[in-house]
Specification:
alpha+beta, Alpha-Beta Plaits
């Protein structure tokens, strides 16, 4: 079965993590209600690796920050586009989408849509 994934990497202050978790719980509910297959939010725990382009170095994390790594799974890109169109019209997300009330800096978020090429 073909799948499509929206992926996010978001630097976030550890102080605002509780507010982010609350926002993510609502977002999870909304995306799943509108048809997403899976919604996952994770927070960095082992980020001091010695090889590769690490999340802290790539995002130039400041003192007291960590990284949230998240993804939403869909049947296809067309399915993603339909789900996201419905999500963006959902009134429950209006306040959450206001950059003034956000627990994160949206300008530092990495985002992209990905076609799955291997899955188990």
């Amino acid at each position: 079965m073909a799948r499509y994934v929206d992926g996010f990497v978001i630097p976030i202050s550890k102080k605002t993590l509780p507010a982010y978790k609350k926002m993510a719980a609502l977002a999870c509910k909304v995306w799943l209600e509108h048809g997403a297959l899976d919604y996952v939010e994770t927070v960095g725990e082992d980020l001091k690796v010695k090889w590769g382009a690490t999340f802290p170095r790539t995002h130039k994390l400041k003192r007291g920050e960590t990284v949230v790594f998240s993804w939403i799974t869909y049947k296809s890109r067309a399915h993603r586009d339909r789900v996201n169109a419905a999500v963006m019209k959902d009134p429950r997300l209006k306040e959450m989408c206001d950059p003034k009330n956000s627990p994160m800096d949206m300008k530092r978020m990495l985002y992209g849509g990905f076609e799955v090429i291997v899955s188990a």
